[in-house]
Amino acid sequence: MASASKEMSSLRSEQPSLGDQLRAEASGVQEQLTDELLTAAEPYAATKPKRLSQVASLFFKLSLTQHTLPAVYTVVFWWLSTALIIYFNFQPALRTALFVSSFGFASLALWMLVRFRNETSVRASYLTFTAGSLLWAFVEVSFYTGFIVGPPLRPIFSIGPSMETFFRAVHQSLYHELLVLGLATSLAVFSWRAKNKFGFYTFLLFWLMHQSTKLNVFFGVANINRDFIPEPVSAIAQYMTIASMNWLFPISITVCTIVSYRLLRRVHESTAAWQKVGYVLIGMMSLLALLEHWLLVLPLDKTLWDIAIKRFH
Known about the structure:
With 313 residues, this protein is mainly α.
């Protein structure tokens, strides 16, 4: 009996176990799959350099779309819109039509800002930036056409800036300043919890840079461009001072440079495409505002819009 049990145990030890059989089968299947994968990868390995170049070209085109196109759009929009406003401001028969049409575009811009404030797409970045710009264009048109300015004052004769002329200048554009303050406050409320704030950022950037330009013209710069002031607001020319430099200009240039740098830096820090496009748009507009500040003091005989004005005439 003991010998029979010994023979059975020896036979069991000689036969492979179930686990060994499974491991052997799995190893065979793995080797077969490896061979099939290597065989399928041979055509890709032959065309790998070509495919890598295609991927690199795709990334280059994507970078071009996210950076160059928004920058070009900003420059063209800025230059063309400014030239059109300057031209139509000197067409007395069209001033009412210009104001009414700009009011219509401003109403559309407000709707766009509310409609796309929570949309996170490249299209929404373009639309909100354009809406903020159109809203600011209405502010400019309403002032230079004389519809929203301020209480009239009798002209004064003074040389150089003073506290009296400063308060008179604010008083004469009081309604205009209140309009800008009301629009900025409304946009801040609408954009408080919004995902897409580029429309509000655009309007705020226009406002701050415009205020800086007005203060520099008040304290004194070399190029005040009185020729661009239309007849309805010609009285504001008495508050402009011609000087080579003023104490505020270096501060304005420094602030504009820092703002431009911070906005363009956010382009590289952002990961989403719509954010990159948005920061390129407002960052480029900040650079253009910096350029406009420099044009106030550089010894130039012409402005950037002289060619356009002559063409339109």
